[in-house]
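It would be a great kindness if you could assist me with a short task in structural biology. The matter concerns a single protein, recorded as an amino acid sequence and a row of C-alpha cells. The record follows directly beneath this note:
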Amino acid sequence: MMVDGCFDPLHIGHLKYFDVASTLGFPLFCNVQSDDYISNNKKRPNLLPELQRINLIDSLKTISYVHLCKTSTSDVLSKLQPLKYVKGMDWKKKGLPNDEQEVCKKYGIEILFLDTNVDSSTNIVRDFIRNKDCNSLKEFEGILFSQKEIEPHYYDEHYFRGDWRNGQNDYSLETRRIIEAKNPVNIKEVFRPKRVLDVGCGPGALMYFLYELGIETYGIDFSQAAKDLAPKEVRSNIVVAPVTEYYNFGIDFDLVICRELLEHLTILQIRQAVKVLADYTSKYLYVTTRFHPSPVSLLDVTDDRVTDPTHITLLNKDFLKLLFMLEGLRPRPDLEEKMDWKKLGRVLVFERVYKNV
C-alpha cells in the first residue's frame, strides 16, 4: 500500500486518509514530497520543512514506512511496485499525472481514490494567505491614516546636539567624523560623483566631508536649525525646504544621497519623498534607513521610538525597494554591498533607468 502527498500542512483530512488507507492493506508506505517539489509545483514556500513533515507522519501508528521523495512519484511507484496506490478524491477529478498512470498500468498497481479530506492543504494555505493579506492591509490602512507628521521645529539645536543623545552620537563634526569613518571616501570611490545632493542633510557633516574631498555638494533639509549649525564652508549650499516637495536647483546631480531620513516620515510622506528623490538624480541614488526588523508581510510597518521619538516609520525593506523601482530606479545590489561595509543591512542603491515625466 502506498499513499503520497505534500502534507503541508498536515491536517485532519490527512489523518483520516491514512486511517482508511491502513484498513485496505498492510504495510502502509507514505511517500512525502520534498520542499523543492512544493516550491516548483505549488509555487509557494513550504510551511513545514520536509524533515518536520516526515517526523510527524512517522510518529503515526497507521504509517509503517515514510520516504522523502527526491525524484518523482512515478519513480517511487516503479521501484516499490505496491499492490495499491491510494490518493485523495480530488485527484480523481483532475486526473493523476500520465507517468504515474503508465507505471501503475505496467505493474498492475490498483489505483484507489478516498473521499476523506475535509479540505486540501492547497486550499488551507490559500485561505490562510488571503486572510493574512487582508489583515495586513487593514493594519496598514489603520497606520497609514493615523500617523501624524513630525513638525520641522522639533528638529532644533537640542535635537542635534542635546544631552539626550547617548554616547558619541551628536551632530558635531568631531563626532560625525568618527561615525562616518570611511563613508565619504567610499562614496567617492564607488560612485565617482561630480555633483552630490544630500536630501535630509541635517547640519551638513557629510556635505563637509565630501567638500574636503573636492566634491561639489548641495543639501536640503526641512529644519532651519540644521542649516544654522552647518559648517560655514557648505552652509550656503543648504536649502531649507520640505524633503517631500521638489526644489528646482537648476543643476543636475549624478548622485543623490538620502540617509537616515525616511524613518522620520509618515508612510504618505515617504511615498512623496521617493518620487522627489527619483526626480533629483540623474544617475545614482544612495539610501540608508531603518527597516522593519522582522517583517512577515510586505505591508508590515512598525516604529523605533525607543531609539529616537521621531523614528515613526520602519517599513519592510522590499516594500520600500518596490516604491523606488516604480519610479524607474533599478536596484544595484553590487554597489549596496560595497556601501554596506558595516554589514548593517540598511543600505539601498539604485541607478536611474529612465526619467519620469
Summary: Residues 2-124 form a domain with the Rossmann fold fold (CATH 3.40.50.620). DSSP finds 16 helices and 14 strands in the chain. Residues 121-144 form the longest helix (24 residues).
